[in-house]
Structures are given as C-alpha cells and as structure tokens.
Write a structure and sequence with these properties.
Blueprint (H helix, E strand, L loop, with lengths): L6 H6 L4 H5 L5 H24 L2 H6 L1 H19 L13 H18 L1
Length: 110
C-alpha cells in the first residue's frame, strides 16, 4: 500500500507507516492529517489571492475542485481528523449545489 502523507511529518509525530497501513489510528496521525488540512486551506487562500481574472478562466476546474474538497476538509475536522472512520462523502445533491454556487459566483462576480 501507499501512504500519501509527508513521511517527515509522520516521523515527527511518532507514527509508524505500518500502523497507517493497518488502519490503526493515533493522536499523532490525527495531528498529521490536521496539519495537512491546515496547509491545504492555506494554499486555497493563497491561490484565491494570486489568481488574476485572466488566469481564473484557465484555472476554472481547479476552483471547482476546491469548492468540492473544502467542505470535505471541514467535515474531517469536525470529526477530529479521524481518517479511519466512516468514509466522508458529499451527496450528489450537495455537489450539485456547490457547483451551482461556484457557477453563479463565476458568472456574476467574475
């Protein structure tokens, strides 16, 4: 199996890769996931500021991905960054509302 988390962060938190591969949670693993979520939110914010209207058109898909994944990160935070719990998903209806909101903002707010 593969682990898509920074190995250095896992080591810093005392998380063994074998524990992750076996689905064993720990406070250290939750801290790594929280750190990754915070890092991701920071990148989203930097991207929002850096994207000029000219580049926004060419990166529309990335904005849409952000619109869908940001609520998943918030949901993960509400359950204390426990990744081995029930799978987090957005319903089709929820995704549709997010996409419509994104489309509305793009049309009426640039």
């Amino acid at each position: 199996g593969r682990i898509y988390l920074p190995a250095r962060w896992l080591t810093e938190e005392g998380v063994a890769t074998e524990d992750v591969l076996q689905g064993r949670s720990s406070a250290g693993l939750r801290r790594v996931v929280q750190r990754l979520a915070e890092h991701t939110h920071g990148l989203y914010e930097k991207a929002a500021v850096a994207l000029t209207p000219r580049f926004r058109r060419s990166l529309a898909v990335l904005e849409l991905v952000q619109a869908i994944y940001r609520p998943l990160l918030w949901a993960l935070g509400r359950r204390d960054f426990e990744v081995f719990g029930p799978r987090l998903r957005l319903s089709g209806k929820h995704k549709a509302w997010l996409m419509l909101g994104w489309l509305y903002r793009r049309i009426f707010h640039g």
